[in-house]
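Q: What structure does this chain adopt?
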Amino acid sequence: MKLHQLYDEAGHLYAFEVNNLMLSRTDAVNIVNSIPGARIIRKPGFCGYSFDDEFCEFKLGDKTFVIYEPWGDSSRFWIGQKQPGWCPELDKIAGCFQTKSFPYGAGGTVRLLVVSTIFLLALMAMISGF
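A:
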């Protein structure tokens, strides 16, 4: 999967973003769960949804990381340390996300189908004058 890497002034990776059109919050948590040594502290609740922008918190080594969706409706998930800054563990996390391919799970596919269906129904209603 393509990463949008974010670097500090010194050129160190401090966070990265992934497109969430085909990746649900649950899918992102499942990828974190596949990282050796990662421990989920907080994850989305019922049906994989959380009303919090910061929907997943996990530890790798002694560092705490979060997955964040700005404004709850962004097109990307932001992944980095809870206290932003470079650390070697972040490279390991980014590498794990980068090796995954779309669609990782069913969540993103279902989301795409639902959004497409709603769009088509709205378009049909507009055309029919309803």
